[in-house]
Amino acid sequence: MDFDGDGRLDLITGSHSGDKAAFHLFRRNKDGSWAPRQRLKVTPADKVGMLVGTTFLTAADWNGDGVPDLLIGKILGSGILVALGPFKDNKPIALTHEIDFAPKGFVFDFAIADWDRDGKPDLLVRQEFLDGKGKYGIYWYKNLGGAGLPKLAEGKLLLEIPGDNVGGGFCVGDWNGDGWPDLIVTRDVYSPATPDGQQDRRGTVWLYLRE
After folding, report:
1. C-alpha gyration radius of the chain
2. What percent of the chain has pLDDT over 70?
3. What torsion, rounded to 10 degrees, do the Cα atoms 39, 28, 68, 80 define?
4. Residues 23, 17 contacting (CB under 8 angstroms)
5. Sign of the C-alpha dihedral, residues 66, 67, 68, 71?
6. Minimal CA–CA distance to 23: which of 93, 107, 96?
């Protein structure tokens, strides 16, 4: 996303280090090189406290004002926070609210995409339900439209993921050029543990085309 509005795309990353609310900005210079990493300040304290462990984020115009926003997970593994743009130099990123969607499970990854091609950004979430109230897989939450922040329909299971798959992510894109978004999904499988506790991990990438 163009974080500072200078016409050049920048890079923002989350953290896999367990460093709470660790978000870093890599600005793109005029010559195409990258500026040194800059840690971004995030507020307010109560919402920052909801970010535990691995954090990941994506940029999208979530409220339809033509300005990119930041959508951030994970909130104790079960939610997605929003910081509305525009973003100013040396001003903290303000986490304004949590996205309201149901059913809501343990979130592994999410994406913003117009899944039904109605011109509005929808929410897709890869999640697991530890209480047994839903299947592990990728769910689609349709954007019902209206001014301001989207209201989302009840989630529909798009893709059930086998129970022996843990973690992993996904992305949405038109793989075959037919105009409809498809799913590209990573799947991690662990072998049964040996008596000494060792396990093998195998990662694969799966493509699911729309019919």
Report:
1. 18
2. 89
3. -40
4. no
5. negative
6. 93
Q: Which two tokens stand for residue 171?
A: 């992305």
Interatomic CA distance for residues 136 and 105, integer angstroms: 9
What is the tally of helices (H) and strands (E) in the chain?
1, 17
- pLDDT higher than 80, residue 53: no
Q: Is the pTM of this model over 0.70?
A: yes
| Look-up of token digits 């970010």 | 51
48 φ/ψ angles, rounded to the nearest 5 degrees: -60, -35
Q: What is the biggest distance separating any 2 CA atoms in the chain, rounded to whole angstroms?
A: 58
Task: Classify burial at 35, counting beta carbons within 10 Å of its beta carbon; exposed 0-12, middle 13-18, buried 19 or more.
Answer: exposed
Q: What is the pLDDT of residues 127-180, one digit of tens each?
A: 988 877 789 999 999 999 877 789 999 999 999 988 766 677 899 999 999 999
Instruction: Return the amino acid letter for 71.
Output: L
Kindly state the tokens that stand for 181: 């978004």
- Show the tokens assigned to 56: 């990941």
Residues listed for the chain: 211
Structure-token pair, residue 74 = 């994970």
3-state DSSP call for residue 190? strand
User: Which residue, 133, 140, 143, is CA-closest to 156?
Assistant: 140
